[in-house]
Write a structure and sequence with these properties.
This protein has 160 residues and is of the alpha+beta class. It has a single domain, classed as Hotdog Thioesterase (Thiol Ester Dehydrase, Chain A), CATH 3.10.129. It is built from six helices and eight strands, in the order βαββαααααβββββ. It is elongated, with a radius of gyration of 18 Å. The two termini are 29 Å apart. The model has no long low-confidence stretch (mean pLDDT 93).
Length: 160
């Protein structure tokens, strides 16, 4: 069950790891669906025979598939805000792809809350340092600094 916290409590979590998602499988079928959705059918993603001849030894997930998985990892790992109405991506300050995710691999996200600040009435901007780990790998699949905005009704904000 996802932990509930208030916006007033979020400042207590800045500077800490706020959650780790469950392991999520990246089967070839998910890679193929992503290739179809993005029109990125490069052989290292969708042709196991040809990809086996590369240094990867088989097909690998798209880097952007790993990025796309962050939303599910976030929902799985981070506390939910009581006042939350909806959240939107604001962008990334940095993304680095360090180790390819092999087809059939499992990944999970670690979320470190770097900053949380109000951006006007009813808008909270959060900045997370995120690491996506690959089960059994020494190096992560990726690291990122991710910004999100949580929109809520200002009437729900506790008065100080």
């Amino acid at each position: 069950m996802q932990k509930l916290i208030s916006i007033a409590e979020i400042k207590d979590h800045v500077g800490t790891e706020v959650g780790v998602s469950r392991w999520m499988e990246i089967p070839q079928s998910r890679i193929d669906l992503f290739a179809d959705a993005t029109d990125d059918h490069q052989f290292i993603h969708v042709d196991p025979k040809r990809a086996a001849e590369t240094p990867f030894g088989g097909t690998i997930a798209h880097g952007f598939l790993t990025v796309a998985m962050l939303s599910a990892m976030y929902a799985d790992a981070t506390p939910r805000l009581r006042e939350d109405s909806f959240g939107i991506n604001y962008g990334f300050n940095k993304i680095r792809f360090m180790t390819p995710v092999p087809s059939g691999g499992r990944v999970r996200g670690r979320f470190f809350l770097k900053e949380a600040r109000m951006r006007g009435a009813g808008r909270l901007m959060t900045t997370f340092d995120v690491t996506v780990e690959i089960e059994g790998a020494k190096k992560p699949a990726m690291t990122a600094t991710w910004l999100t905005i949580i929109q809520f009704d200002p009437k729900d904000m506790p008065q100080a």
